[in-house]
Each structure stands twice: as C-alpha cells, then as structure tokens.
Amino acid sequence: MTGKAPGDIEMAGLDIRAIDHQKPILRTPNRTTRAAIRHFFCYPEPHLKIRPTAWLDGLRGAAAFEVLVYHYHLKFLGQDYNPAYGSRVDTRQWWRLPFIRNIFHSGHSMVNVFFIISGLVLTQRSLSLIRTKQHAKLYPAISSAMFRRGIRIYLPAVIVSFFGMLTIAFGIRHDQHIEQPSFLGQVWHWMIACRDFANPWHDYDHAYDLVHKYEHTMWTLPLEFYGSLVCWVTLLTVSRIADTRKRTAVVLMLCYFSFVKGNWWSLNFLWGILLADFLLYQEAEAASQPTGRLRLAIKAVWFALLIWCLYVCGLPDAHYADYSLPGFDWYYHHVPQSFRFIEEGGRFWWMISGSLLVVCISQLPPVKLLFECRPLQYLGKISFMMYLVHTYVLELVGVHFKDFVSSLVSTPLDVPSLDGKGTITFMVPQGRAANYFVYFAFWSFNLPLVFAVSGWVTRYVDDPSIRFAKWLEGQFVDDA
C-alpha cells in the first residue's frame, strides 16, 4: 500500500482523499449518510484514481453481474428462458429478441470473458519485462505470482463454502446428495470436498467433477488455476524470445494444439497472452498507428465485430432444444469437430464471442471509457465475491422473498401430480401486471442485499486472503 497524504482514509482496500483541508470540515447529515452507505456497500469514493487497466476491472465486474442475472433468471423462469424468439408459437415475447435476451442469457460467454481477462492481466507485466529483456526481474515475478495464485483463488472459496456447509448442517438449506447424519460428519464431508476441489492433481473424469459439492458456481476456479499455470509455463517458454513475431508464433502453436483437443479454457488464457502482447506492441508503436480515414475505418470494423459478438453471446443452449432456434441454428451447424460434444457445440461460439468481445473493447476507447465508470468499477471490486456468494443469497433469502411477494398477488392452482395420485398446488400470479410486480419486487430487494453481502465478504474475506498470501510468501521466500 502506498503512503497516504494527511486526510486520506482507507475504505474497502482503496486509497481515497476524504477531506479537503483547504475548506472547513462540514459534517452535514447528508454527507454522513452517503459516506455510511458507501462504506456499507464497499462502494468506491468519487475521487478514486483510475488506472490504465481499470476498464478490465469494470468489464470483469459487468461479466460477474451478468452471471448473477443469468442464474437468477434461471431460478425465476426455469428453462423457459432459453428458447429464442419464434422458437415455438408461445415464444414471441419481446424479451426473447436478439440482444435483449443477452440481459439474462449471456452468462455462458461471460465465463470466457473472465478467462481471457485473467490471461491478459496475469501476463502483461511479465511480457513487458520480456520485451525490455529484464529477465532478472521476470523470474522472481513469475515465481511470486505462482506461489500466491492458489491461495488467492481457493482460500476465499473454501471460507465461503464453509458457511454454505453450515447452512446444510443446521438444516437451513437441504441437499440430499451431501447431507450427513451428524455435524462432525458434515464437516468431514466438506473438508474432503475442499481437498478434492483444490487439489491440482485431482483426476477430473467429467466436467461435473470440477464442481464444488457445496457451491456449484465454483466450477470455474480449478480452470482459473490451471489456466494460470498455462500462462506462466508459456511465459517461461518464450521468455528469451525478444522478437514479437516469433514469440507470437510459439503461442499460436500452443493455441492450435488446444483447439484440436477442444480445450477451450486454455485457449482463452493463451488468447489473453496474445492480447496482452498486442496491446504492449500498440503502446510501443503508438506514433506509427493509422490516422485519418483509415483509423476510422478500422474502428468501424471493430465496432461491427463488437455488435456481432454481442449477438452471439445470447446463443441459446442447444441441449434443451426440442424446438428450432431462429437466428441461431446456423451456429450449431458450424461447430468444429473437436468442440461438437462440449455443451452440444455451444461452448465454441460462447468462447469465440466472449473472447472477441474483450478484444473489440480494447480497441474502442469510448467503450473502454464506459467500463471505467464508478458503478462498474464497484462491480469489478466485488466481482469475485459476488460470483461466489450470489447463489447463497438467492437460496437463503431471495427465493423465500419471491414466494412471499408472489403469495400476495396469486391464487392457488391445483395441478395433477405426475404419479396421478393427487394434486400439487401452485400459487399463480393474477395476470401480467402481477408477474411484473413480483419480478421487480424481487430485484429491488435482492440486488442491494447481494451487493452488500459481496462487499462485506470482499472486505473481510477476499482482501485478507490477498494479504495472507503475500505474508505467507514472505515467510518462505527471503526476498519476497
């Protein structure tokens, strides 16, 4: 942490200028209330300094928020959210149209956004050292990052899943697949689950094995860790290659081998390396960049590609498709063989669209500026913890609140049970207005709660985990 001038305070891990000593100190209730709200939600102050890579933080925050929206709509609408506009007679609602459907159905692509951003951020500084041949600084930097990475990823997840385990042990949540007859048995089961989840040598026979038994959204974390290792091994491989073209050729060769194996996550991280090197090249060659009409034409191409990426990000799942997918069928008919059986081929296009989305934004300064705004910087700050806790908040509070609000504007409807031995009573909202009321009431209540919990967990779990990883490195490494 850098030194702070008088009047600076530290809030949520961010250095801010809280008091202007040239003016009288006025403590109006309004200012005090705003400061308390910012502190409660871990929200950044107005004078937060924007770093050159701040747009990546904002984009990561937007991606994490989109994953939240995707999961919440999945719970709210079930699989009815998936069909595209016109898939069936009953799927002509306006919210199923292309681009609009991205609001609740681009969560798949956002995982790829996470991974390419990680590949970029993890390697940009090291690539800068490679380009300037500062190998004496490069190797300690990679060693330090590798030492801390596992702790950085897994420790917050273990702590969050511990509280998830307690909700199972005390009967607050129910999951027959993991419930144990005793509290100690539950704790032991959780410890084994964490051991297998964080074990880099664990043999994953199926993709589902990546899932932490106490929080299914954590399935991306092992891939995040493995992708980090791919980045650092690749950096060591190309560390003595000063020529950018030759270095790029080596990384492209690794991309090819990942492609033919359908290894989409490693492709994302390798593309992150290529993008980081490309951005450093652009920075070094800024004086020779195109100008005038040629520059505008290039920007127009990037913007058109951005629009296409947004369109494909809304690609529906195919494995629910007992119906056609107007506007999207072509994509499922054009999937490379190595990706054909990965999520029915959908992952290929989610990977392409999510990755190119980041590339396009990196080339469009006005769009980058959008992701530097305070709300998205805030989402970037809490993004990791929001990703980990949002389903817990939904299951523990959100669903019950939704059911309560729905009961106020609903009438009972008896439906025959599947076994034909009785009926099941559902509470059905009375008309479209009632549906909208329940929907907006749910979001109005749940979003502030998720933001608050994510901010608290960021402050008291994530930030201390980062400091702990740094401290632990210092205990083992003399010059850390």
Automatic annotation (TrEMBL):
<feature type="transmembrane region" description="Helical">
    <location>
        <begin position="382"/>
        <end position="401"/>
    </location>
</feature>
<feature type="transmembrane region" description="Helical">
    <location>
        <begin position="223"/>
        <end position="242"/>
    </location>
</feature>
<dbReference type="GO" id="GO:0016747">
    <property type="term" value="F:acyltransferase activity, transferring groups other than amino-acyl groups"/>
</dbReference>
<feature type="transmembrane region" description="Helical">
    <location>
        <begin position="301"/>
        <end position="321"/>
    </location>
</feature>
<feature type="transmembrane region" description="Helical">
    <location>
        <begin position="262"/>
        <end position="281"/>
    </location>
</feature>
<keyword id="KW-0812">Transmembrane</keyword>
<feature type="transmembrane region" description="Helical">
    <location>
        <begin position="348"/>
        <end position="370"/>
    </location>
</feature>
<dbReference type="InterPro" id="IPR002656">
    <property type="entry name" value="Acyl_transf_3_dom"/>
</dbReference>
<keyword id="KW-0472">Membrane</keyword>
<keyword id="KW-0808">Transferase</keyword>
<dbReference type="Pfam" id="PF01757">
    <property type="entry name" value="Acyl_transf_3"/>
</dbReference>
<dbReference type="InterPro" id="IPR050879">
    <property type="entry name" value="Acyltransferase_3"/>
</dbReference>
<feature type="transmembrane region" description="Helical">
    <location>
        <begin position="436"/>
        <end position="457"/>
    </location>
</feature>
<keyword id="KW-0012">Acyltransferase</keyword>
<feature type="transmembrane region" description="Helical">
    <location>
        <begin position="102"/>
        <end position="122"/>
    </location>
</feature>
<feature type="domain" description="Acyltransferase 3">
    <location>
        <begin position="54"/>
        <end position="404"/>
    </location>
</feature>
<feature type="transmembrane region" description="Helical">
    <location>
        <begin position="153"/>
        <end position="172"/>
    </location>
</feature>
<keyword id="KW-1133">Transmembrane helix</keyword>
<protein>
    <submittedName>
        <fullName>Acyltransferase family-domain-containing protein</fullName>
    </submittedName>
</protein>
